[in-house]
Each structure stands twice: as structure tokens, then as C-alpha cells.
Write a structure and sequence with these properties.
heterodimer; A: 167 residues; mainly beta; 2 domains; five-stranded antiparallel sheet; three-stranded parallel sheet; elongated; B: 123 residues; Elongation Factor Tu (Ef-tu), domain 3; 1 helix; 7 strands
């Protein structure tokens, strides 16, 4: 599991998304709402990095490649939420992030670049998630383990985050 | 294959493209994604040139003609990536083609401006 590069953005715009729902209006004007899920979707985070050195641009490019563009998910570093005492989305939670699109890399001045990226949350399947999974048993199989502690190595997990002592 | 003219742009913007994939979204907002390839597609490079001489402008126009517009892909010279110590888009993996025609504007007497948009082609 990957974490976004530890870079402090120059600007940051967070949109808290919405709970998936469908609204139906009657002829009388009364509206009924039907909730389709219990977690917010389309939470987006637009990050702008200004006057980065080439090495920092490469960090973002390599991370984007490592995540196979917008395909794979990741978590954010504390630096991304710099300034918040409590990030609006906890760093390790049942929300992960993915790229909405490709980073935009623009020449700023000699040897410096501006980079814009846009991210959105992906609700992680909580059925596949263990928080603080110290000594978690092998069954049932989970795809994600946060703070895996001494979690069993078998079956293999797709994502192990903070695998302190995991075998 | 004709390499792009050796002209260093005065402005440059790179959109890094994405991996080809299809996303299917449920009503709950949860989604499933299928990846179809291992090379990024639709990387866009926008090059801005200012105060070009007529000869330099003609180099660009001739190159566009040689590549039959957006049809034939080509390599980029190191001058296009001036400022980078390592080229961000590996030339061994990608060539480039014109997205479409570009406009040549008058910047000053006998000097010309243009902005060219290129798109990567995986090779």
C-alpha cells in the first residue's frame, strides 16, 4: 500500500462529497429521498504544489506510475493535511484515495515546476477491513489490514498498512 | 521519422496521462475498475513559443507538413525538455504526434508566437 509523497501543498481544496441518494418529487411538490449507500462518495481534494524541485516532481510522477494512474488506491501523508489539527478525512480510515486524472506539470521558473493533482476518495470495503488488527486470525480473509500488528501471513492480503511486525 | 525541431519552448505544460481502464459504478457509489493496458495514454504536452523568427516558425510548419499533420508520430529532441535532468516521459516508450493544427500569431514585427499541443503515442 502506498502513501502519497510527503509534500506540503501550496493550495488545497477539499470537497466533502455527498451520500449516494436518489430524489423523487411528487406532483404535489413533496420530495422523497432514497439513500443508496451509507458513506459519502465523490469527496475530492485538489492539491497545487508550487515551485517544486525536479526531485519532488519526480516523487509525484513515480507515485502516479506506481499507482498505475487512477487505477489503484493509496493513503495521504500528514504533510498533505498540513495546518489541520484533525484532518477532515483521517489518514488511515475506511476511505482511501485515488487520482481523478493525471498530474499537470507546468514549468514555473528555471529549474522549478508547478504541479496540480486532483484526488477523490474510494470507500474501502469494510467487510475486508481490520483496524488495529493485532494478532488478527487468518479467517475470514481480509483484503485490507490497518496497523496489522502480528496478523497472520496467510491468506495473503492485497493491502497491509503499517504492518508493524506482520509476518 | 522526423524529429521535432530543436527549439526550446518558452512555456511548457505536461499532463501525465492515465492508464486505460473502465470503471463500473454501483448505485451506492462503490466502483469496480478494470485496467486494459500497462502504458499511460493521452499524455498531453503543450509547448509555447514566443518571438520566433520566420525561419524558426517555418521549421515548425515544415515539420507539421512532413508528419502529415496529426498522422505520423515523431521523437522530441532534448531541447524540448530543457531544464529537466531526466526526461519525464521515456522516449524509449513513447513518441508524440500533433493533436491538431496550431496557430501562428504575430508577436512583433517579424516575430511570431505559437502554441503547439502534442499527444503521446505508446510504442
Amino acid at each position: 500500500m502506498s502513501t502519497f509523497p510527503a509534500l506540503v501543498p501550496a493550495t488545497r481544496t477539499f470537497t466533502p462529497g455527498d451520500v449516494p441518494s436518489a430524489m423523487q418529487g411528487a406532483l404535489s411538490g413533496v420530495i422523497s429521498g432514497f439513500r443508496r449507500g451509507n458513506r459519502r462518495i465523490k469527496q475530492t481534494l485538489a492539491l497545487s504544489f508550487s515551485l517544486l524541485e525536479e526531485a519532488d516532481v519526480t516523487l509525484i510522477r513515480n507515485h502516479y506510475d506506481n499507482r498505475e494512474g487512477s487505477f489503484n488506491i493509496f493513503f495521504l501523508s500528514t504533510e498533505v493535511w498540513n495546518g489541520y489539527t484533525t484532518p477532515p478525512i483521517p489518514l488511515l480510515s475506511d476511505y482511501a484515495w485515488r487520482y481523478v486524472g493525471a498530474p499537470n506539470i507546468t514549468d514555473a521558473s528555471c529549474g522549478r515546476w508547478d504541479v496540480d493533482v486532483e484526488l477523490e476518495t474510494i470507500p474501502i470495503d469494510t467487510g475486508d477491513l481490520i483496524f488495529d488488527g493485532e494478532l488478527a486470525p487468518a479467517a475470514p480473509a481480509r483484503a485490507y489490514i490497518l496497523d496489522a500488528g502480528g496478523a497472520a501471513a496467510s491468506p495473503a492480503r492485497d493491502y497491509i498498512i503499517s504492518p508493524t511486525g506482520a509476518v | 521519422m522526423a524529429t521535432f525541431p530543436t527549439l526550446t519552448p518558452s512555456a511548457r505544460s505536461l499532463n501525465y496521462g492515465d492508464y486505460p481502464q473502465a470503471t463500473y459504478e454501483g448505485v451506492s457509489g462503490g466502483n469496480v475498475r478494470f485496467k486494459f493496458g500497462s502504458d499511460r495514454v493521452v499524455q498531453r504536452l503543450t509547448l509555447g513559443y514566443e518571438y520566433l523568427t520566420e525561419a524558426e516558425t517555418q521549421l515548425l510548419l515544415d515539420h507539421y507538413e512532413d508528419q502529415q499533420g496529426s498522422l505520423i508520430s515523431f521523437d522530441l529532441p532534448a531541447a524540448v525538455w530543457a531544464g529537466y535532468s531526466s526526461v519525464p516521459v521515456n522516449p524509449a516508450d513513447y513518441e508524440w504526434r500533433y493533436v491538431g493544427p496550431f496557430q501562428v500569431g504575430l508577436a512583433a514585427p517579424l516575430r511570431y508566437n505559437t502554441s503547439i499541443e502534442l499527444e503521446s503515442v505508446p510504442i
